[in-house]
Design brief:
Elements: E1 11-13, E2 32-34, E3 54-56, E4 76-78, H1 87-94, E5 102-104, H2 116-123, E6 129-130, E7 133-134, H3 137-147, H4 149-157, H5 200-211, E8 214-219, H6 227-232, E9 242-247
Parallel strand pairs: 1-2, 2-3, 3-4, 4-5, 5-6
Antiparallel strand pairs: 6-7, 8-9
Helix pairs in contact: 2-3, 3-4
InterPro entries: Leu-rich_rpt, LRC72, LRR_dom_sf
Protein name: Leucine-rich repeat-containing protein 72
Organism: Echinops telfairi (Lesser hedgehog tenrec)
Length: 248
C-alpha cells in the first residue's frame, strides 16, 4: 500500500476483511483505491483525497457515505452490494460530482424504491453508466416527464418542426379547459326555460345566451349644424341627437 518513504502508490488495493481503515488524507495524490470485499461501514477515512478518480467500495457493509461529496474528481464509483438505505441521502452526497460517469448501486436496500433508477438519472445527469447499464435517451426523456413536467411540456412545444415522440408521456402537463355545451332541452326565443342545472356555471351560460344584447350608439350628424349655420342661427339649436341601434 505504501512505498519506502511512507507515500501511497497511485493505485492501492486492500482486500483483507477490513472493518476500519486509517485516515488516508495525507496521501493527497492517491488516484485509484480498491477496498471491495471487506467489512467497512463508512468512508470517513476518504474526506481529503481530492485526486481520487476511481473508488471501488463494493461488497462491504457500508450504510452511509457521508463525506463522499468532497471527492469531486471521482470518475468511477462502485458501491454495489452494500447496506445503503437512504436514497435521498445517497443522492445528496453524489450531486456535486460532475465528473462521475460510472456508478453502481445495485444490491443495496435503496434499490427497492419505486423509480429508483430514474431518480438517480434525474439527480445525477452526468452519469453515463448506472448499475453496469448504459443510460439511454429514452430513460432521460422519461425522467424529465416524471420529475419535471414543466420542462417536459417545453420540450414538446419547441420540437423545431420535427415529430415529437410523446409515447413516453402518458400524463399531459397542461390540463385542457373543459368546453361548455348547451343542455339538450335548451330553447330559444321567448319560451321560459325552467331547467335545473347541477352546475351553476351552466345556468349562467344559458341565461347569457338568451338575454345578450348588443347596442351601438352614434351621433346623428344630420342634427349637428355646420360652422356657417351656427353663425346664421340666432339661438342655440341644442345638443346633437344620439342614434342608438340595438341588436338581440
Amino acid at each position: 500500500m505504501y512505498d519506502e518513504k511512507g507515500s501511497a502508490y497511485p493505485g492501492t488495493k486492500l482486500r483483507r476483511e477490513l472493518t476500519d481503515v486509517i485516515d488516508l488524507s495525507r496521501f493527497k495524490k492517491l488516484k485509484y483505491l480498491w477496498l471491495h470485499y471487506n467489512k467497512l461501514n463508512g468512508i470517513t477515512f476518504l474526506t481529503r483525497n481530492y485526486c481520487l478518480t476511481e473508488l471501488y467500495l463494493n461488497n462491504n457493509a457500508i450504510f452511509e457515505i457521508t463525506g463522499l461529496h468532497s471527492l469531486r474528481s471521482l470518475h468511477i464509483l462502485m458501491l454495489h452490494h452494500n447496506e445503503l438505505t437512504s436514497l435521498e441521502g445517497t443522492v445528496k452526497e453524489l450531486k456535486g460530482m460532475l465528473n462521475l460517469k460510472i456508478l453502481t448501486l445495485y444490491q443495496n436496500p435503496l434499490c427497492q424504491y419505486n423509480l429508483y433508477r430514474l431518480h438517480i438519472i434525474y439527480h445525477l445527469p452526468g452519469v453515463e453508466f448506472l448499475d453496469r447499464n448504459h443510460v439511454t435517451e429514452k430513460e432521460r426523456r422519461s425522467m424529465i416527464a416524471i420529475f419535471n413536467h414543466e420542462k417536459s411540456h417545453i420540450l414538446q412545444s419547441i420540437a423545431f418542426g420535427g415529430k415529437v415522440d410523446v409515447s413516453w408521456n402518458t400524463t399531459p402537463p397542461v390540463k385542457p379547459k373543459p368546453t361548455q355545451h348547451l343542455p339538450s332541452d335548451f330553447t330559444f326565443a321567448n319560451n321560459v326555460d325552467k331547467t335545473t342545472f347541477a352546475n351553476p356555471e351552466d345556468a349562467v351560460f344559458v341565461r347569457a345566451m338568451k338575454r345578450s344584447v348588443m347596442a351601438f350608439t352614434s351621433v346623428n350628424w344630420d342634427t349637428v349644424p355646420t360652422r356657417d349655420e351656427k353663425d346664421l342661427q340666432e339661438e342655440d339649436a341644442g345638443p346633437a341627437q344620439m342614434l342608438t341601434i340595438t341588436l338581440r
